[in-house]
Design a protein that fits this description.
Elements (H helix, E strand, L loop, with lengths): L1 E3 L2 H8 L7 E6 L5 H13 L2 E6 L9 H6 L4 H10 L4 E3 L3 H4 L18 H4 L3 H16 L3 E5 L3 H14 L4 E5 L19 H6 L2 H14 L5 H13 L5 E8 L14 E9 L2 E9 L1
Parallel strand pairs: 1-4, 2-3, 2-5, 3-4, 5-6
Antiparallel strand pairs: 7-8, 8-9
């Protein structure tokens, strides 16, 4: 497994054998089975697999969240070696944002609601860094998790808008046995909060069951999720949404497909989760 820090180092490895298909899995490290599922999907479909680990400061709207974001590079490298990853890219902040950096990639609509509304500037940070990762790495395929549904919608839009020459592959949400979506932030939960956190999954599951039994009014689905979350005293709801899965526009009337999503605080830790019903 090779390691690179600068863009030039990445390019030297990437183009050492022209003609090979590379899959890229962008991450912020503190790797868990959710990340590794994307690595395995990339491993299965490409000649070579690259993983980037970069805790991107510009996508953190909350400075405290950036400071407390878990970092564990040695463990991450051991996990990636076991998965047969070919290249790990660990840029420093100054490699990604050298002095004088002045470009931002910003999407107009898909980034506005939900995470965009709660985390001002977050998606500008994500779009800019992902555009840079794509330009340096030039993968044939890039892998993202459905866990971050709005991020997926935004990246697909950006790839269409800016003609990035690659395929976006979306992996399903990997969950703990009790349903909690795996997240690097889960380690910050207290034992009591951790015990309460599967309420996101149960709220989504209840709304999904309501949908499948024919209750497709968006307001009813929002009410089912609100009731489930309000029954958990440790959960503080940031948003609950029933939206179009591509545009992220909130649904008013019944539709064929819907993205059910939520962001919920447990103390200072903010968790997100979602399900698509169709
Ligand atoms: P992060 O390190 O949080 O930026 O995540 C890197 C990638 O892993 C993103 O595409 C995430 O959507 C994806 N990911 C994170 N958690 C999960 C999960 N529980 N299941 C599937 N993919 C995930």
């Amino acid at each position: 497994m090779q390691q690179a820090i600068t863009g030039d180092e990445v390019r030297a490895v990437r183009w050492a054998e022209p003609g090979l298909a590379w899959g890229l899995v962008p991450t912020m490290g503190a790797l868990h089975e959710g990340h590794l599922s994307l690595v395995r999907a990339a491993r299965a479909a490409n000649d070579r697999v690259g993983v980037s680990i970069f805790v991107n400061p510009t996508q953190f709207n909350n400075p405290e969240d950036l400071i407390k974001y878990p970092r564990n590079v040695e463990v991450d490298l051991a996990l990636l070696r076991e998965e047969g990853v070919d290249l790990v890219w660990l840029p420093r902040v100054e490699d990604v944002y050298p002095p004088g950096f002045q470009t931002t990639v910003s999407l107009a609509h898909v980034t506005q609601p939900l995470e965009g509304a709660s985390r001002p500037g977050h998606f500008d940070g994500v779009a800019t860094v992902v555009a840079k990762l794509f330009n340096v790495f030039q993968p044939m395929r890039a892998y993202f998790g459905q866990k971050d549904a709005q991020q997926v919608a935004m990246i697909q839009q950006m790839v269409r808008d800016l003609n990035f020459n690659l395929e976006i592959v979306v992996g399903p949400i990997v969950r703990e046995v009790d349903g909690l979506a795996m997240s690097s932030r889960n380690v910050r939960l207290t034992p009591e909060q951790r015990a309460a956190a599967p309420v996101l999954y149960s709220a989504l599951s209840s709304a999904c069951a309501a949908w499948e039994s024919g209750g497709r009014s968006p307001d009813d689905l929002r009410r089912v999720m609100t009731d489930a979350l309000n029954a958990e005293p440790l959960a503080r709801v940031d948003y609950i949404s029933v939206a179009d899965p591509v545009t992220l526009v909130e649904l008013e009337d019944s539709a064929k497909r819907a993205l059910l999503s939520m962001a919920v605080y447990f103390g200072e830790v903010r968790l997100i989760d979602n399900m698509v019903v169709e």
